[in-house]
Amino acid sequence: MAQDGVQYFHSEKDFILSPHSKKVPKRMASLLEMKEIFRSADAVCFDVDSTVIKEEGIDELAKFCGVGDAVAEMTRRAMGGTVTFKAALTARLGLIRPSYEQVQKLISDNPPQLTPGIRELVSRLHQRGVQVFLVSGGFQSIVEHVASQLNIPTANVFANRLKFYFNGEYAGFDETQPTAESGGKGKVITHLKEQFHFKKVVMIGDGATDMEACPPADCFIGFGGNVIRKQVKEKAKWYITHFDELLKELEER
């Protein structure tokens, strides 16, 4: 039985011995290790939609273009892990077909709303010399706007790029971007480790595509502050609902 986020164990195999010969649940031991990885991380990668910001950017764009309900259902299926991300992205954008003007107007008229606590958390990570990246299946123009609010350089943004014709009409998306497919966020993290020689990289997000990025990420933290994905909550060893929980972990050191 679990109560208040604590899981109780009832058999001998569920315990390991600590250096002080006390019995400690295996799950708790791994959670302690994950917290230490987070506190000593070289880099932290955040998903954006429903994590750094309250909304799903593609859903907001769909509503803005008049096809909100149909696209929201596709998003739920994609985040639940029941269809491949690229297939879901292709289908959703095929319905929306946003023009360049519509994307820019969405950003100016309905800018994405930051999740409470994210500004403070990113600022604290920067103060500690931790590199912060935004790794998103959303769209570059929207994610770069979010990055600017958090003092994250655009070079630290990895997201999907929409393509437009000269007249501004929708022309598809760049399918070569790693974030355009399932497993793409893991590819980004592998690239970051190779390029910057990071020893410890943490991935934080709400969805299945975030969870599958660990490994190569050394730690995954599930986030349910805006929406709870059942699959992620059940499988993530570390699951939080407010960024204050991570700020407190950093204050312990």
TrEMBL record:
It is an enzyme of class 3 (hydrolase). SUPFAM superfamilies: HAD-like. GO terms for biological process: L-serine biosynthetic process. Its cofactor is Mg(2+). The active site is at D47 (nucleophile), D49 (proton donor). It catalyses: O-phospho-L-serine + H2O = L-serine + phosphate; O-phospho-D-serine + H2O = D-serine + phosphate. Keywords: Amino-acid biosynthesis, Hydrolase, Magnesium, Metal-binding, Serine biosynthesis. GO terms for molecular function: L-phosphoserine phosphatase activity; magnesium ion binding. GO terms for cellular component: cytoplasm. Its EC number is 3.1.3.3. Pathway: Amino-acid biosynthesis; L-serine biosynthesis; L-serine from 3-phospho-D-glycerate: step 3/3. It comes from the Eukaryota. Belongs to the HAD-like hydrolase superfamily. SerB family. NCBIfam families: HAD-SF-IB, serB. Catalyzes the last irreversible step in the biosynthesis of L-serine from carbohydrates, the dephosphorylation of O-phospho-L-serine to L-serine. L-serine can then be used in protein synthesis, to produce other amino acids, in nucleotide metabolism or in glutathione synthesis, or can be racemized to D-serine, a neuromodulator. May also act on O-phospho-D-serine. This is Phosphoserine phosphatase. The lineage of its organism: Eukaryota, Metazoa, Chordata, Craniata, Vertebrata.
